[in-house]
């Protein structure tokens, strides 16, 4: 699976659970993923 497909799968699981959350909450969630991709995508190499 491509990283984009993995992200899409993650969002499909999370968005229904947060459907009652207001938009700023979703925006902060998107921002978190954009700035912390290591929590979803495996690191290229161990440091």
Descriptive account of the structure:
- The model has no long low-confidence stretch (mean pLDDT 68).
- Helix content is 60%, strand content 0%.
- It is flat, with a radius of gyration of 12 Å.
- It has one domain.
- The two termini are 24 Å apart.
- It is mostly helical and 47 residues long.
- It is built from two helices and no strands.
Per DSSP, the total helix count is 2
Query: What would you call the shape?
Result: flat
Largest sheet: none
Poorly predicted spans: none
Helix content: 55-70%
Order of helices and strands: HH
Number of domains: 1
Q: Quick one: how many beta strands?
A: 0
Mind telling me the C-alpha Rg? 12 Å
Percent strand equals under 5%
The overall pLDDT average reads 68
Structural class: mainly alpha
Euclidean distance between termini CA atoms: 24 Å
Defining traits:
mainly alpha, flat, 2 helices, 47 residues
Brief description of this entry?
This protein is mainly alpha-helical and 47 residues long. It is 60% helix and 0% strand.
Secondary structure: elements and pairs:
Blueprint: H1 3-17, H2 23-35
């Amino acid at each position: 699976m491509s990283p984009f497909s993995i992200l899409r799968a993650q969002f499909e699981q999370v968005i229904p659970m947060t459907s009652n959350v207001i938009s700023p909450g979703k925006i902060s969630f998107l921002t978190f993923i954009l700035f912390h991709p290591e929590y979803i995508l495996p690191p290229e190499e161990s440091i």
